[in-house]
TrEMBL record:
N-terminal signal peptide: 1-21
Protein name: Uncharacterized protein (DUF2141 family)
Keyword vocabulary terms for this entry: Signal
Matches recorded under InterPro entries: DUF2141
Biological classification of the source: Bacteria, Pseudomonadati, Pseudomonadota, Alphaproteobacteria, Sphingomonadales
Amino acid sequence: MFKVSVGLLPVALLAITPAMAHGQKINNDLDLCGVSAKGPAVLVDVRGFAAPTGKVRVQTYPATKNAWLAKGAWLNRIDTVVQPSNGAMRFCMPVPEAGRYGIAVRHDRNGNGKTDISRDGGGFSNNPSISIFNLGKPSVEKAAVRVGPGVTRITINLQYM
């Protein structure tokens, strides 16, 4: 038999409490954002596809300066073939808890898996302007959205250089 010091209990609980998971590839399950969905989640309408070709990637990030658009810091990612209806597609992005998040979308028009600045499009939550001068990366403060305990709806308008 062994004893656990009461002073070590908070440390032990921290060790077994799961942190915010990073890097989960998920399917676009619109039922998670449906009428009876509990959330928390973001229902994202992506508009303005320049062509009905290629692939689209939607990623959710914690809205912190260190995590926003950092390699490998995304929480959930949906990669799918572009199939717009009237130039738009809808995505459901579940989040681990209510809070602040940023969402990034990339339209890879030729589906080659590379960013072709002159052809591919992109957009972010809150629709901040992007340009060649900020390399298409707005600050986290411009892109952060507050997500409540239910389903939060946003629209992202794609921009092309």
